[in-house]
């Protein structure tokens, strides 16, 4: 974001400044276009892949019409856990941001680039925050980060010690530290950083922990216990069956490790409007728990959390299928739900739910006049009475049933 130098200078000299937003609002589509162009350059780093793979990529986002600023107040604070250094506030129904230094030494603790980034990030939040949900990505590689958490902390701390002992040169120490993870895709890097920083994460409290403690209890039932971070930054799993037992991540089951990120997200990070992305949530899980995770996701959806999952689990899809077919207004359905220990909170509206399968199909590519065969996403049919139709899953199950029936009946003949 283009933040004028004189505005930052004014803030450092006077302790406060106002940032008008009208000019930024008029340029929203241009800002998005520039962001898309810059983001395309980052795709090799995002995927940790060769630049040649992205030479012909197009990444486009635009708004149909300009929108009014969000009416609600937005406030962002920058600093440490003990002291706020910079406060940025957009008052309710206002078209400006007020920046205020929370320190008395003329901003000597703040670097110009830090202020520039903070103001730019706040402008982005005001202009686009209500349009683009905040993502929390749980990658399929998550179990490894849980096991090697202590080693990751030790390695980075040693690196910081080595860097601090060196004579000052022109190199950027943070660039050196980031190179440690340069061979990993962005979601994997973020998972590693999340696990490393879990002691600080545990100090926060999500709206679920305050308003929906029963949902967190359901999650505890799925993993069979709770996670605990000690004051000395040690991470343990405490089983429900014996609260005296403390298991390290090495000693815990693979399913406990694979759900670690999700558990801490739900209890400490989760906000309404978030986008939770989970790669293969069924990883290392018993079929019964795969069904319970589907029910947990349904409750989160109904509480305003957007969820995106990739899955190969028929159990997960079939359970979501049942939740869509449940009609809380139908007396016979209610009896079935009560008998099977389902809650009305788990009932899913088909209008809130979409399923896509990756398949080869005829598609019209940009610049072509005729359709050609290529990989694309095909939407599945979803009916509120019949549920989801996923042909690839159904065909595999039917094929297995045919083989089993043939073996059974032919052997009898």
From TrEMBL:
InterPro entries: AAA_GajA/Old/RecF-like, Bact_Antivir_Def_Nuclease, P-loop_NTPase. Coiled coil: none annotated. SUPFAM superfamilies: P-loop containing nucleoside triphosphate hydrolases. GO terms for molecular function: ATP binding. Keywords: ATP-binding, Cell cycle, Cell division, Nucleotide-binding. Signal peptide: none annotated. GO terms for biological process: cell division. This is Cell division ATP-binding protein FtsE. It comes from Sedimentisphaera cyanobacteriorum. The lineage of its organism: Bacteria, Pseudomonadati, Planctomycetota, Phycisphaerae, Sedimentisphaerales.
């Amino acid at each position: 974001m283009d933040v004028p130098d004189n505005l930052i200078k004014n803030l450092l000299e006077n302790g406060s400044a106002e940032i008008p937003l009208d000019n930024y609002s008029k340029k929203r589509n241009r800002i998005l276009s520039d962001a898309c162009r810059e983001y395309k350059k980052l795709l090799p780093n995002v995927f940790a892949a060769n630049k040649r793979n992205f030479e012909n990529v197009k990444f486009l986002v635009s708004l149909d019409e300009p929108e009014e600023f969000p009416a609600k107040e937005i406030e962002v604070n920058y600093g440490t856990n003990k002291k706020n250094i910079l406060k940025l506030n957009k008052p309710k129904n206002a078209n400006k941001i007020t920046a205020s230094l929370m320190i008395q030494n003329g901003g000597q603790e703040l670097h110009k680039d830090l202020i520039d980034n903070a103001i730019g990030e706040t402008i982005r939040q005001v202009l686009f925050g209500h349009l683009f949900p905040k993502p929390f990505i749980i990658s399929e590689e998550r179990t490894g980060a849980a096991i090697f958490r202590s080693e990751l902390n030790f390695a980075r701390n040693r690196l910081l010690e080595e860097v601090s002992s060196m004579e000052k040169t022109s190199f950027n120490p943070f660039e050196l530290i980031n190179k440690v993870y340069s061979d990993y895709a962005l979601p994997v890097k973020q998972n590693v950083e999340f696990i490393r920083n879990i002691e600080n994460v545990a100090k926060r409290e999500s709206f679920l922990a305050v308003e929906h403690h029963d949902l967190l209890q359901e999650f505890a039932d799925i993993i069979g216990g709770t996670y605990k971070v000690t004051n000395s930054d040690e991470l343990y799993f405490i089983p429900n069956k014996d609260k005296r037992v403390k298991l390290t991540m090495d000693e815990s089951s693979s399913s406990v490790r694979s759900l670690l990120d999700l558990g801490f997200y739900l209890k400490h990070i989760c906000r309404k409007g978030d986008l939770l992305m989970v790669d293969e949530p069924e990883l290392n899980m018993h079929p019964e728990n795969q069904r319970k995770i589907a029910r947990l996701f349904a409750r989160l959806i109904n509480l305003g959390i957007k969820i995106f999952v990739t899955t190969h689990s028929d159990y997960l899809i079939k359970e979501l299928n049942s939740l869509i077919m449940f009609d809380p207004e139908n007396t016979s359905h209610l009896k079935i739900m009560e008998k099977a220990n389902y809650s009305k909170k788990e009932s899913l509206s088909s209008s809130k739910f979409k399923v896509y399968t990756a398949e080869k199909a005829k598609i019209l590519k940009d610049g072509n006049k005729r359709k050609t065969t290529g990989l694309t996403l095909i939407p599945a049919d979803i009916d509120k009475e019949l549920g989801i139709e996923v042909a690839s899953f159904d065909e595999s199950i039917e094929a297995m049933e045919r083989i089993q029936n043939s073996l059974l009946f032919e052997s009898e003949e």
